[in-house]
Amino acid sequence: MGVSKPPNVNEPMCPSRLVLEHVTSRWGVLVLAALLERSYRFSELRRTIGGVSEKMLAQTLQTLERDGFVHRDAKPVIPPRVDYSLTALGEEAAREVWELARWTERSLGAVEEARVRYDTVRAVSQ
Predict the structure, then answer these.
(1) Cys staple from 73: which of 46, 83, 105, 120, with CB 3.0 to 4.6 Å?
(2) What angle do CA 32, 33, 35 make, to 5 degrees?
(3) pLDDT digits (tens, 9 = 90+) for 28-54
(4) How far apart are CA 117 and CA 113, in angstroms?
(5) How far apart are CA 87 and CA 65, in angstroms?
(6) Neighbours of 85 (CB within 10 A)
(7) Whose CA is closest to 68, among 43, 51, 89?
(8) From CA 33, how far away is CA 95, in angstroms rounded?
């Protein structure tokens, strides 16, 4: 038996790339960040996130549940009630991506200034 190498996200076939994609996807970040606050029912979560389709939210939740980040609690009541919350692993991931999201908000002005500079230089050189 050979010694297995530790995961390296820079390797093209590393399975960690797929996990990284799930956690940092457009909707993955927002779902994790929202669930960091509290558990949500599907419709509440959709309203909280805003702009996500029912299909994309369902897919994102299913993917994050499969990866072990989200817990789906379906209660056998009428009408059906399903609550979504973070697992311990999900809380850890959510804190990390939430920091990135907050940094993005804080840095938006600098990013917009950089875009204007870039566009100005590109316009002059063409």
Answers:
(1) 83
(2) 65
(3) 999 999 999 999 999 999 999 999 999
(4) 6
(5) 9
(6) 14
(7) 89
(8) 7
